[in-house]
Amino acid sequence: MTTDKNKNYGTLDELAAVTIEIDQAFVDSCSDFGAGTDEAKTIYMKSRTYIQGVVGNKTPEDRIRQRCAVATGDISVAEIMEFRHDPIAAGVAAIQKGAPIFTDINMVKAGITKSGKYASEIICVLDEDENAEIAQKYGITRTSAGYLACRDRLNGAVIAIGNAPSAAITICRLIEKGLRPALIVATPVGFVNAAESKEMVRDMEIPVPSITCIGTRGGTPMAVACVNEIIAIANEKKDE
């Protein structure tokens, strides 16, 4: 039996050549804290520059649309984004105050940049009902149970839901009972309650700032993109 262990693939210097020509102007202008190397910054900014020409680059909402298009590789997602009650300003203010960010799943938590000049704690609600006691007792999803478990800490927080329609519905119910988060980013994906849950967020009688998308599309990349762009804007304003 042979293994690859002793194969000579070449030196690291040979293998680690960058896959794109580095553009120093793009590197210098990159505001994405998730792009940590010159190669990553160049790739991101080339994508962003292209999308700016397609989506537009006049408003903060355009910046969210751009980032979602880059994150998904789908320009058409820009057309399904919905912004209610000045959500970007609300999100920026919350981040500048160090408000916590509560995510529905760990993939959303992992995707949110940890770099930059902000102090917000990022919490996955699955860890709040760690043994699924609430979920099992009431027969609800773990994400719904997680938001219920930390309901006393959600006022003034940023809520980011990229996967679970049930979590978005639970948040709407909590808002009906008096909860007031600073911002809801809800982009759950799928064919069961995804479109309906996002519509619930948009159509609440109580005016809570929200970013959603229309229909069954969405997912973790869109939720992460929204939050990361708000963090980028908050950091820029701190430097002004």
Describe the structure.
The chain is α/β, with parallel strands linked by helices and 240 residues long. The chain has a domain of 163 residues: Cobalamin biosynthesis CobH/CbiC, precorrin-8X methylmutase (Rossmann fold, 3-Layer(aba) Sandwich). The chain is built from 11 helices and 6 strands. It has a 6-stranded mixed β-sheet, with helices on both faces. β5, α10 and β6 form a beta-alpha-beta unit. α4 packs across α11, α8 packs parallel to α9 and α9 packs parallel to α10. The longest helix has 20 residues. It is globular and about 60 Å long.
**If classified by CATH, what would the architecture of the domain at 77-239 be?**
3-Layer(aba) Sandwich
Distance between the termini: 63 Å
Q: H/E series, N to C?
A: HHHHEHEHEHHEHEHEH
Rounded to an integer in angstroms, the radius of gyration calculated over CA atoms is 20 Å
- Give the class-level CATH name of the domain at 77-239: Alpha Beta
Unreliable runs, pLDDT <50, ≥5 residues?
none
Keywords:
about 240 residues; alpha/beta; Rossmann fold; six-stranded mixed sheet; 11 helices; 6 strands; globular
